[in-house]
Amino acid sequence: VLQISKDDVTALQCKVVCLIQNGNFKEALGIINTHTKVLTSDIIAFEKAYCEYRLNRIESALKTIQSASQQTDKLKELYGQVLYRLERYDDCLAAYRDLIRNSQDEYEEERKTNLSAVVAAQSTWEKVMPEDLGLREATYELCYNSACALIGQGKLNEAMKKLQKAEELCRQSLSEDSDVTEEDIEAELAIIHGQMAYIMQLQGRTEDALQLYNQIIKLKPTDVGLLAVIANNIITINKDQNVFDSKKKVKLTNAEGVEHKLSKKQLQAIEFNKALLAMYTNQADQCRKLSASLQSQSPEHLLPVLIQAAQLCREKQHAKAIGLLQDFADQHPANAAEIKLTMAQLKIAQGSVTKACMILRSIEELQHKPGMVSALVTMYSHEEDIDSAIEVFTQAIQWYQQFQARTNSDCFVFQPKSPVHLSLIREAANFKLKHGRKKEAISDLEELWKQNPKDVHTLAQLISAYSLVDPEKAKVLSKHLPSSDTLSLKVDVDALENSHGATYVRKKAGKLTGDNQQKEQGQGEVKKKKKKKKGKLPKNYDPKVTPDPERWLPMRERSYYRGRKKGKKKDQVGKGTQGSTTAGSELDASRTASSPPTSPRPGSAAAVSATSNVIPPRHQKPAGAPATKKKQQQKKKKGAKGGW
Predict the structure, then answer these.
(1) Which residues fall in a coiled-coil region (predicted)?
(2) pTM above the 0.85 mark?
(3) CB 179 within 8 A of CB 147
């Protein structure tokens, strides 16, 4: 037809539709752009916008839809998809609501699914509280989107239940089709399982999450976006460990078409993790390149600058890192607080505590916070700069006083001091008392007591402080203390001692008879004194002999120590040529008649009994040895037989 008539509108329109059905979007768009005079926007606006959408030319598709003279239902459907891809979720939500309200056909379920996807995206990326749309969760897609919305709200347990329900519905719906295999079902369930693993990761169950992530990767799903997200999550679990596995997973995030499947925040998170991985693998140039690229894309974002500073610190360039952070804080005052906290941490790591305190005190919006006050006081105390620590307390208390004054002037009603304000005053008083600033502490304690005259603890502290400075004033204030009668507690001591949780139970006294009873009546109750146990005396103790006063000193330090005596054996060693013997000595033991054999010979029991009266040399006691030495009993080995 086109050979006969090149500009036949119907033939051209049919050819464009055929090319779209075959997936040849580029060729179809070429024909539309070539025949713009014939194929006007009124005739083929939807086909042109759809080709641009499928070719990821989202902005061009939006312009084509908006330039159409008539907004058909098809164009409205495509308009909703385009807005979702552009992450204009509020406009997208309005478009789908209008579609659901004004159309009735077999695609209503798909529109509701898309509507729930928009609500889930708002909850996840924009942290918007999702409204209840009243959608009946009859399909696994609706259950899945509802679970994603719950994850955005932080309701992880509820989200897990929704995902389990979505898994069950998915299996039921797909198993009804006989052509669908188990592998197809698992592939469809991969995205649900991936979200389950993400919840486990958020709950701290990293081992379970990692196992499920790896199972999904083994299935080799065709969705490159799903694979990229799972690979990124595995990298975050690995952190600076298992770096080789992380480098393999990074390749999945670089797959073709990933940038069209994920949101901007997802892509940004992946790029951040790539930069961190480059830092952990000591790829300094790559880390700097990635972080610089991220900073150019998001100049006000904190992470790129923090990554650059961390890389410089790894290279021992702390001064350069602090300079980089200072420049960013000057250019972006809105994010200066977090940057200055990092700078202070670096100064502390270098040992410059005083400079770190100066940086922290420059953060005006955090000066009055209890956590900041506590940190500064601790650091100044470590540096023994008590005046600066007290100044920190004073500035924080003044801030709360000014805030109270502003509140009273605005409300025309007197407002009492806040609990944080009173807590700071008390901590300041305790700190001053601890470091000997009694007069300054007294003024703080008086202010506290003025706020609550019934506070006995504060009054006691005030009296204690005055007793060191002005005893007369302490006596006057002590009259305000409650009497001992009001403080006494009516406690049944016997019941308390006999209670189940008592650690000490008083023994019941037995009946007193005879002399004991008379003693009790005469003397009354007398506290029993613990008898001291007599110390053990040595066995050779003689009470008539005076103990040696130097017995506690080592032998060498005693006055009567004369050194070691020469051994007897040394005197018996013969002197002279080798082999000679001294007179009167006999070294051959076999010639002595009284010496028994050193060990019995086998089969000579009679010989043993004959010589049993003779004590062998090894069993003979040395001269002067005590006769009462106990013999150690030999333990019989288990299963040993008697005899030699």
Answers:
(1) 58-113
(2) no
(3) no
